[in-house]
Amino acid sequence: MDTAKYAELFLTESREHLSSINHSLLELENAPEGPGGADLRASAVDALFRGAHTIKGMSATMGYTAVAELSHDFEAMLDRIRRGEESVTRVRIDEMLKAADALESAVEEAVGGHQPSAAPRERRVRIELRRLDTLMNLIGELVITRGRLAQLASMIADPALEEAVSQASRLIADLQVEIMTSRMVPVWQVFDRFPRVVRDGARELGKEVTFEISGKDIELDRSMLDEIGEPIVHLLRNAIDHGIESPDVRAAAGKPRAGRMTLSATRDRSAVLIRVTDDGGGIDRERVLRKAQQAGLIDRAVTSLTDDELVRLISRPGFSTAETVTGISGRGVGIDAVQARVRALGGSLEILTAPGEGTTVTARLPLTLAITRAVLARVAGETYAIPMSHVDETVAVDGARLATVQGRPVLVLRDTVMPLVRLRDAVGRQDGGGAEQHLLVVESAGRHAAIAVDELTTQQEIVVKQFDGVRGGLPLFSGVTILGDGAPALIVDVSTLL
Amino acid sequence: MSHTVLICDDAIFMRTMVGDILQQAGFEVIGEAETGSQAVEKYKELRPDLVTMDIVMPDMGGIDAVREITKVDPDAKILMCSAMGQQALVVEAIQAGAKDFVVKPFQPSRVLEAVQRVLG
Predict the structure, then answer these.
(1) What is the pTM of this model?
(2) What ipTM was estimated for this complex?
(3) Residue ranges per domain, chain B?
(4) Cβ contacts of residue A250 below 8 Å, gap of 6+?
(5) Residues of B with CB under 8 A from a CB of A
C-alpha cells in the first residue's frame, strides 16, 4: 500500500493529537489533589491514553517505527496510570511532558525525512466546505458590485475615482482566482474507485475489458467533482454493458478479445474535458431507431439514422426511460441522464460513435461554477447573456450570406451551412422584425447555429444565478444574471436552440 | 450493487485509510462515526451492509457500541479493528457480537479478506 499520500494527513492529525496531549497534561497538572479532582484526572488520563494510542496506530500504519515505539511506551505508561498501577505525581507529569516533546520531534522527523530537503514543507489547514461556499457567494456579489462601480466611475469621469476603481477591479479579479483555486481538488480522489467498478461490471456481464485512466492530477472544483462521479460511473457501465461486445463476438469480428476502455481528464483553455472511450460496437442504431419510433419521435417509414439524429435522440431528456410497447425498457442508453447532469453543471456533452469501432463521450466542464464569461446582446429592448464557451464568432448581418434550405433560413459561413435562429422568435417577441444587425455563431455538442440579435453590447464576466424553478418560463434559459446597472439578463441555454 | 459500509474510528486518519481501502475495492462508504454512540445512531439510521469498528473511542467505546448495535440488529455484520496486543478485548468484542477482526496497522489484503469473511 502506498502510504506516502497519507503523510500530510498523518502530520496534521498527529500535530492535533499532540496539541491536545499537551493540553490534557496541563489539565492533569492543575487538577485539584484528592477525591475532588478524581473525575478531572480520570478524564484527562483517558484522553491522553487515546491520543497516544491513535498516534501509535497511525505511525505504525505509515511505517514510522521510531514514532510507533515512542508512542507505545507513552501509551503503556498511561495504561498503568489508568488501571491504578501507578500514580500521577509532579515528577511523572514532567516525564510525560518530556515524552510528548520527544514524540513531537519524532513525528516531525519521520515526515520531514520523506521530503526532499530543498523543498519547503507545505502547511495546510482544514476548512469546512461550507466556508468555501460562503466565500464563493461573496466573491460573486463582489463581481457584480465591481461592474456597477466601473459603470458609475465612467459616468462621473473623475480620474482619481477611476484609478481607484480600476485598482479595486484588479484586486477583486485576483481574489476571485484565489478563491476558485482553493476549491480545486485533483480528480484522482474520485477516479481511484473506477478501476474496480469496471472490473466488477466486466465480470458480471462476461466481458473482458482493459481500462486505463489518465490525467489523474487534473484539478476540478470540489463540488463539480462530487457531482460528476455518478455520471461517469453511468458512462462506464454503459460502455461495458452496451458498448463492448462479448469476447467471442469481438474475436469473430477480428478484434482483440478484450475490449479497451479509457477515462481521461484534460485541460482545454478554461474547461476540463472528461472523456470516456470504448472500442466496442458503437451505439446500437437499430435499437435507438426502434425506441424512437415506438415513442413517436421518428416516422415509422425511416430506416436509418444519421450520426446527428442518433446523438440528438439519445440526448433527449427522458429518452432512456421512455416506456415502449415491446418492453425494451430500462436498458436504454441512459446518456440523457448524463447530459442533464452535465448541463446542470454548466457544461456540455459531445458524443462520437462509429458502428463496429466504438464510442467516445466527452463532458466539457467549466473550471468554475458560478462565474462565467458571456456575450451580452440586446433583442427587442431586452438584454440577454450568451455564455462565451459556446460562442465561436460574431458576424455582421450586413454582408452575411443568408439563404433558405428546405424552407428554413440558414447562414452560409465559409464552407459551413448552419441554421439561423432569430432570438427574437425564440423568446416570443413578435415586434421589430428586421432590426437584427448581428449574428452570433454558436456551437453545442458539435453542432453550429447562427443566432440573430439586434445589437451586441459587450463581453464580460457574469455571476450565474440558477433558477429555483421554472414558473411558466421557457426551457430556453438556464439562469439569470444581474448586470452592472442592476437590471437582470436572462442567460440563454444554447443547446436548446440547436 | 456495491456493499455499503459504516466506518467507526475516532481518528480521521484511520477512517480515511480504511475508507480508501474499501472504496478502491468497490465498497460505498455511506457514513462515518467518531464515537461509539454516534456509531449506534448512524447504524440505526443508515443500516449499512458492513460496519468497521475501532475498539478505543471516546464517549462510548467500540465494544459497547457492538453490543448496542447487535441488540438492534442481531445480524449486524461488524468487523472489529484492534491494535496489536488487544487480544482480550477482541475476544470480548466477538462475544458482544462482532463477526471478525483485523489488526492495525492495516494491510489492504488482510482487511479485504476479513471483510469477505464477515459478509459471508
Answers:
(1) 0.50
(2) 0.83
(3) 4-119
(4) A244, A256, A257, A258, A259
(5) 2, 10-14, 16-17, 20-21, 23-26, 56-58, 83-84, 104-108
